Every structure is written in structure tokens, then in C-alpha cells.
Amino acid sequence: MEVARHPARVELARQLRAIATETLALLLPISCAGCDEPDIALCEPCRALLAPAVDTRTIAGGLRVSSGLRFEGVAARAIRALKADGRTGVAVEVAPALRSAALAAGWEPGVLIVPVPTSRAAYRRRGYRVVDLIARRAGLPVSRVLRVGRASADQRGLGREQRRRNVAGTLSARGAAGATVVIVDDVITTGATLLEAVRALRAAGAEVRGAAVVAATPLRRRHRETAAKHLELRGDGANLPG
Ligand SMILES: [Zn+2]
User: Fold this and answer.
1) Number of C-beta neighbours around residue 206 at 10 A
2) pLDDT digits over 94-132, tens only?
């Protein structure tokens, strides 16, 4: 009797497999968001690497952008865990970086903290707004005056000029007339999205004091990595340029 091939049994087996997979996921121990050390959400060495180290750069259009961390190593892994793996507990760990950056960007009482809005697709996928969540954990009261109008294509893999064209006209602002604002976002790469936010806010009559991000992609990383490699080879790793 070939009962094993009966469609109902096949379906039952599929369902049991699905349940087993889900149960396993619940039982699997958590690991460090920065280094995968088991049984801990964030280990102490990784937490130490998330201590704010504020850097301010001026990007095209004269916008001053302050960042709390460099988007590399543990910081990059922790932020990816928050953005891609649903590790919402990481938000409180990177919150000090955003708070320090916001203060460096000129945030003070009376200045609005305006997050770059999450696309509808990203919100549906995650169920939370990354920047808003970090800002709340940082004690920064957010004013969601920016809205996504037209959807832009995925920015990944695009160059600076392509990104600028891709996002142009995608944001609009309401209720910001006469306000002074600091824009906040999670990570800055080329700054195209931040510049679009500036354009929309200015069009709505706001004054943009600056921008604050949790982490910034290091400038000329490739050059630095090459330099670091050479220095390492010479046993001189402590004197990295810049
Ligand atoms: Zn760790």
C-alpha cells in the first residue's frame, strides 16, 4: 500500500516540516548582532565599538552631515541586523550614535528632527521604520513632515549621479513652513536621498540646519584599506592616514 504518496499525507508532512522549522527558529539561540558570539544579543566588545565617534562632512549643496559611527565592521553588521534581520533590539544600541550626531548637526529644543521617510514597500517588508525607531530610542522627537510621493527604483548598485536622478522629486514636505529642521537617516552613502530631502523641505519653506545619520560610509575607503594593508605589512598599523 503506497500510503506515503497520498496527497493528504504529503501535505501533512509539508505542514509538519513547516512547524518544525518555525519551532527550531524559536529555539535557536540568539547571537551577537556584531560578531555572532552565541547566546548574547550584543557582546561587550561589540557594544564598545558602537560608542559614538562623531564626524561631520559637507556634501554637495553645502549640506553638513554629522555621523555617529563609521559604516564598517561591527557598526555595519549591527545596522544590517536591524534593517534586514528584524533585530529591532539593536536600535537602542545605535541610538547614542544618532543622538550625538543630531547634537553635532545643531539640534536643540525648537529644531525639528525630520526623518527621511521609509518607502511603503520597506515598511510593509519590515513592519517598522528603522530611522524613526532609532530616533525614538535616542530620545529625539520626530516630526514626520516628509512624505514619499513617487516611488524610486532600488538605489543599490547605482552611482552618485544615477542615484541623484533616481530620487529627484520623490519626496514632498508638508507642515514645515518656517520651521528649522535637522534631517535624520540611518546611513549615508552618496547623500542623494538627503539632498532630495533638503530640496523638498526648502520647497515647503523650511530652513535645513544640517543632517544627522547613525553611520557614514567612510570616504575613500578603498584608498584607506590599501594604505592600511601596506602599513600592516610594514608592521606600522598604528599610524593610519586620516
Ligand atoms: Zn559581538
Assistant:
1) 23
2) 999 999 999 999 999 999 999 999 888 889 999 999 999
At residue 2, does pLDDT exceed 50?
no
Say how many Å lie between the CA of residue 240 and the centre of ligand 1: 24
Distance CA 137, CA 6 (A): 53
The structure's pTM equals: 0.76
Please tell me the distance between residue 206's alpha carbon and the centre of ligand 1 in angstroms. Answer: 41
Which residues, in sequence order, are CB contacts of 58 under 8 Å at separation 6+?
64, 65
Rounded to the nearest whole angstrom, what is the distance from the C-alpha of residue 135 to the centroid of ligand 1? 23
68 Cα–ligand 1 center, Å? 19
CA of 71 to the centre of ligand 1 (A): 16
pLDDT in tens, 24-36: 556 666 899 999 9
State how far the Cα of 112 lies from the Cα of 85, in Å rounded to an integer: 30
In CATH, the architecture of 44-218 is 3-Layer(aba) Sandwich (3.40)
